[in-house]
Amino acid sequence: MPGVIETDAHETDRWVQYFARRGYPRARRLASGMEGTVYRLEDGIVAKVWAGRTPGDFGLTRRLYADIAGRSLPFGTPEILDAEECDGVLVSYERELRGRPLRSGQDGDAPARELPRRETDALLTVLRGLASVPGTEAMRSMVFQGDDRPLWQGHSRFSDALAALVERAAGRNLDALATQVLAPADVVSRTAASLRALPDQADSVIHGDLVPPNIHVDEAGHPVAVLDFGFCTTAGDPAFEAAVTAAVWDMYGPHAARHTAELSRLFARELGHAEEVLALYRRAYALITYDLFGMGPHDGHFRWCAAQLS
Asked: What is the domain-level CATH number for residue 34?
């Protein structure tokens, strides 16, 4: 397979043989991501070999998936059929989700200056669909990437829980932020105070990572699946989902700032979110994710987060 280093190929062979012994002789590797590697076993069934997850903490994920899949959405979401352990590695069996990535980010040029209508329409469909899924206890029990406790622990409002996370996350590496952001402690303080001042909102599921590869579409460009819940998944204000989506849809392209502004205006107009609240949530997102991939001038995500706070 082009682009697969020898150790990856060896690992792929190992799992293909494992699934063959489990009764799936046509198993083949589909893709890898932050959560693990996915193999197609047969029509309609895939297996995920999880990275860094154990069977003991998977029950919450199964409940989360079930809470979302149980709603009547215009697109599919992950459904767990079974799970097992192999040498300490979690393997889950799931229904295969249809479609192809809306945009992989690896198969062409950077996004054009004008976002295609099919992309913006797809985003509105997904955001409206997710906003219709009420928050549940499983969603409120999820831990954001990089944190050490459930987001909602000790809180009864999303905005309060998010403010506390902003303070914890900034405290992890405030010195690193100070190399790029003027008076970061003041930025953190103002952001947390603004979050706590927000009015109450009805909670719905938040995916938290609606980047192009995580939305699959059919040939007509209609969303048929949303993948990879877990990175920043919780229950909360749908405006947070809209704000993060506008920010991460194109983070590094030559027209990234234009696209964020365009999507923010679109979501404000079509979904009823206040643009100042979207801007606040973007700052909060920068403060809770700035150090997750690296901390230095060569890390694109760190630079992007610092730019949101400057």
From this structure: 3.30.200.20
Which helix H or strand E contains 208, and what residues bound it?
Answer: none
Would you state the pLDDT for residue 2? Answer: 36
- Domain extent for 299: 100-309
The answer on 220 and 291 residing in a single domain is yes
The rounded distance, in Å, linking the Cα atoms of 10 and 26 is: 17
Same domain, 220 and 160: yes
CATH number of the CATH domain containing 196: 3.90.1200.10
Distance CA 226, CA 208 (A): 12
Whether residue 78 is found in the same domain as residue 137: no
Looking at the structure of the chain, the number of domains it has is 2
Q: Are 216 and 98 in contact (CB under 8 A)?
A: yes
Per-residue confidence (pLDDT) for residue 181, from 0 to 100:
96
Has residue 89 been placed in a domain? yes
Rounded average pLDDT per 10-residue block, the chain, 310 residues:
50 93 95 86 94 82 94 95 92 94 65 92 98 98 95 98 98 95 97 97 96 94 94 97 97 95 98 97 98 91 95
Q: Are residues 158 and 289 in the same domain?
A: yes
Strands (DSSP E) contained in 124-243 are 204-206, 215-217, 223-226, 234-236
pLDDT value for 54: 77
Category of 264 on φ-ψ map: left (φ > 0), alpha (ψ -120 to 50) or beta: alpha
Q: Are residues 274 and 171 in the same domain?
A: yes
| Residues linked to residue 29 through DSSP beta bridges, in sequence order | 39
Answer yes or no: are the C-beta atoms of 143 and 60 closer than 8 Å.
Answer: no
Q: How far apart are CA 283 and CA 34, in angstroms?
A: 23
Axis-axis angle for helices 275-289, 238-248 (nearest 10): 70
- As given in the structure block, the two tokens for residue 309 are 């706070």
